[in-house]
Amino acid sequence: MTTSPQPTALKIMVIDDSSTIRRSAEIFLGQAGYQVVLAEDGFDALAKINDHHPALVFCDILMPRLDGYQTCALIKKSARFHATPVVMLSSKDGLFDRARGAMVGSSAYLTKPFSKDSLLAAVREHTAAVPAQS
């Protein structure tokens, strides 16, 4: 028996060109009761964000066509989504990458591969004040 997502569950968008990372995040978040919206790259995410209004966005940095920094900057420039937290995802854990992410408006930085606990801790930290969606 499959259970449908709870209508009040927060929506979380995961943008990553790696199907493994997207699937891992989808499983971890889904098990915790969140609705998950997946996007393969920045263009895919920008096409979906208006339809889904996520409470939080996880965004990979190194992606083809539109990288994570550009994607984050475009989300943050939007009047509708400027307050939406964006957590950058990267396999690199350098000070430069963190600083550049902060410059384009990201709320935090999560190093890949992430654990279920670190992913869910980031969600709790950045959605604590967000009311459940219907």
From TrEMBL:
> Can you give the residue ranges of the Response regulatory domain?
11-127
Instruction: Give GO terms for biological process.
Output: phosphorelay signal transduction system
Coiled coil ranges: none
- SUPFAM superfamilies for the chain: CheY-like
UniProt keyword annotations, A-Z: Phosphoprotein, Two-component regulatory system
Claim: Transport is one of the keywords in the record: no
The record's annotation in Gene3D superfamilies points to:
3.40.50.2300
- UniProt signal peptide: none
4-aspartylphosphate carried by residues: 60
Q: Which Pfam families match?
A: Response_reg (PF00072)
Q: What is this protein called?
A: Response regulator
Q: Which organism is it from?
A: Massilia cavernae
